[in-house]
Amino acid sequence: MYKNSEKFLTTFTRIERMLKTLLRDRREVGFSKAVKILSNSNPIVKRYSNTLLEFAELRNAIVHNKIDMTYAIAEPHDSVVNEIEIIEKELMQPRKVIPLFSRKVYVFQQSQPLASLLKLINEKDISKFPIYDGGEFKGIVSQKGITSWLAKNAVEQISHLSEIEIRDVLSYEKGDNFKLISSNTSVYEAEEIFKDQVGKGNRLEALLITKHGHPSEKLLGIITNWDIMKV
């Protein structure tokens, strides 16, 4: 039966090799330096950077204070071993947006009546809808856009709601309120896209998933801010 210190050190060594592989031409740097460098480009390393740096300190404490080959002065708790193994798995096989966010995506043509979209909101409690003109993707209609349209037009047009087309509301949406991503995108990359856009003052309504991230491809899933928060 392996001790926790042995499990921890073995897993730590595998992660260290993995980080050096990611660094390519800078493999001579130490573990902590590698974590700090990769945090700028790798969303998974960035997510776990503080924990990985703490693991480096624990590794040093175990190795430098080892009394002999069979006895370690510090034995990591089971939760620590479990956590480092989870991080290794995420680095080796990061969760992808597909199949995690695979779902039926309800889409509309921009020529359809707005009433049909409002009906689906009431029935399915869905708030983001990809809009097409034939096979051409035109954008996303959200509850925010619908609210903006109502604020400007309710008094004059609410009695003629059956005549309002989705295209009328689409013009009230920001053209950059979405991003298209490929099905091979990791959950951490998706999270970084949301954060990056917020940092630029642009709050995305959703990420749309297709096989290669092209608007002409079939939609495989959709991710909202709330979806990311849940995972």
Search tags:
alpha/beta; CBS-domain; 2 domains; 3-stranded mixed sheet; 11 helices; 12% strand; elongated
Question: What would your notes on this structure say?
Answer:
The longest helix is centred in the first third of the chain and has 20 residues, at 4-23. A three-stranded mixed β-sheet has the order 1-2-3. Strands 4-5-6 form a three-stranded mixed β-sheet. α1 crosses α2 (31-38), α1 packs across α4 and α1 (4-23) packs parallel to α5. The protein is built from eleven helices and six strands. β4 (178-182), α10 and β5 form a beta-alpha-beta unit. The relative contact order is 0.12. It folds into two domains: 4-94, no CATH class; 99-230, CBS-domain. The protein is α/β, with parallel strands linked by helices and 231 residues long.
CATH architectural label of the largest domain: Roll
Beta content: 5-15%
Number of DSSP helical runs: 11
Low-confidence stretches: none
* CATH topology name of the largest domain: CBS-domain
Major sheet characteristics:
3 strands, mixed
Rg, rounded, reads 24 Å
The level of helicity is 40-55%
Mean pLDDT across all amino acids: 90
**CATH class value of the largest domain:** Alpha Beta
The helix/strand order is HHHHHHEHEEHHEHEEH
What is the terminal separation in angstroms?
33 Å
Q: What is the assigned CATH homologous superfamily of the largest domain?
A: CBS-domain
| Alpha-beta content class | alpha/beta
Count of β-strands:
6
Cross-sheet strand order for the largest sheet: 1-2-3
